[in-house]
Amino acid sequence: MIYGHVEDSMTDTLSSDMLACLKMAALFETGNPGSYPIDGDRVFVNIVEYPTVEEADRFWEAHRSYLDLHLMLEGEERIALGRTEIMEQKDYVEADDFLPVDGEACASVILRPGDFLVCYPEDAHMTALKADESMKIRKAIFKIRINPEGPAGV
Fold first, then answer.
1. How confident is the model at residue 147 (pLDDT cuts 50, 70, 90)?
2. In a 10 Å sphere around its CB, with 0-12 CB exposed, 13-18 middle and 19+ buried, how is residue 31 labelled?
3. Neighbours of 140 (CB within 10 A)
4. Beta strands in the chain (DSSP E)
5. In angstroms, rounded to a whole number, what is the distance separating the alpha carbons of residues 154 and 151?
6. DSSP at 105
7. FRET partner for 75 with CA separation of 20 to 30 A, picked from 51, 103, 108, 134?
8. How many of the other CB atoms lie within 10 Å of CB of 18?
9. What burial class does residue 154 get, using C-beta atoms within 10 Å of its C-beta: 0-12 exposed, 13-18 middle, 19+ buried?
């Protein structure tokens, strides 16, 4: 997991794909939610808008073929984090690169505009959690393939 802000000097240590995604984020501050290719199925972005909710209304997930780079555009969201190796792993959905897991959070972060969070396959995450109060958020979720094979159908 990597947590930071787009103006942090530590962004220089990110991979070239991560840096490229952060640099193009301004292109996605407006416009419609949806999925947009950046480099075919190797790098793409999902622009999402949703209200934040209580933990009881959300689920844990992880991925095997892509890492997630969550970049907050508007609003405030808490994301709970866990380690997949100590959580109960359920049936992996290869076509969606979706690994449902169950377990307890080890940590959480609050994303505000300009904050980003990188989740690797070992980083289970529960998104869309309210921080102080429920609010509508807008976020870019960049998907960067780390498994050269990629999931089928992506």
1. confident
2. exposed
3. 22
4. 2-5, 34-39, 43-51, 60-62, 66-74, 77-83, 88-89, 99-102, 107-111, 115-119, 123-129, 136-145
5. 6
6. -
7. 103
8. 19
9. middle
Q: From the centroid of its chain, how far is CA 106? A: 17
Please tell me the number of Cα atoms within 13 Å of 11 on its side-chain side.
Answer: 18
Q: Which two tokens stand for residue 115?
A: 């904050």
Name the token pair of 9. Answer: 């000097």
Backbone dihedral region of 137: left (phi > 0), alpha (psi from -120 to 50 degrees) or beta?
beta
Where do the domains of the chain lie?
Answer: 2-143
Superfamily of domain 2-143 in CATH is: YhcH/YjgK/YiaL (2.60.120.370)
pLDDT tens readout for residues 122-146: 999 999 999 999 999 999 999 999 9
Q: Measured between alpha carbons, how far is 38 from 115 in angstroms, rounded to an integer?
A: 21
Are the C-beta atoms of 81 and 1 separated by less than 8 Å? Answer: yes
* Phi (first) and psi of residue 9, to 5 degrees: -70, -25
